[in-house]
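for the writeup, i need someone to sanity check this before i put it in the appendix. the sequnce is what the collaborator sent (i think, or maybe the updated version? ugh). structure was predicted straight from it, no edits. if anything looks off just tell me and ill rerun, i have time this weekend
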Amino acid sequence: MAKQEKDATFVGDSRVSAKRIPNISPSYSDFPGKTEPFWPNFLLKEWMVAAVCLVGFLVLTVSHPSPLTDKANPNDTSFVPLPDWYFLFLYQMLKYPWAAGDWVVFGTIVVPGVAFGALLLAPWLDTSKERRPSKRPVATGLMMTALVGIFYLTWAADHEHSLNHPSSKDSGGAGHGSSAAAPAPADSSFTADAVWKAQTSCMGCHGKNMEGGMGPNLQKIGEKYDATQIADIIKNGKAPGMPGGLIKDDAEIAKLAEYMATLK
């Protein structure tokens, strides 16, 4: 059968077999650095990287087991808790005026929300086809700024905690215990005076007979403080765990302080 046109004649012959081309992915060797097949080239490299990271993580867990430090002690009011290392940068950021106090919502919700939201939307915000960091200055600059900021805030939080609370650092690191001495054992035969038993807010932490509980043992508090110092602590509190202003009457404070100063 022939089909004629103005300048050419096309002839078809059904006896000529069609050339069958197998369904094989084209060779990407002619386009170096441009693209590659997802399987196995791309996926195999991803698996290899994941396997190396997993093996490295397992080696670290075996060679450096989690430290076991002091048992939890509710009577140890000197203990200063600290977040785990991966939250230290947020913990440190909340110490700055622009992220604390009246701005605490900005520091706890707005800043982390914008940061993690941008990370989540990164594939849609940065649609450049370039893969070299040098040709993606905006994305690379933001990433480096975030990494430097996180590393600095993490270091600053740990360094500041080490300077202010060296005993906690020596006993096993951030947020994992305290080397404070155990409280003195309570005297079971001791009976507190009526002036103490009238202070229900004090007994809630220090016990009915001053034996200690959430707060320290006060049965021999007079060996450490005089009446004036005790009265000042009752009025103004004492870091980290003693709040001030629980007793409003100055006369009651003076009476209680005089009694506690005699306990030696």
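Confidence is low (pLDDT under 50) at residues 170-182. The two ends are 122 Å apart (CA to CA).
thx in advance!!
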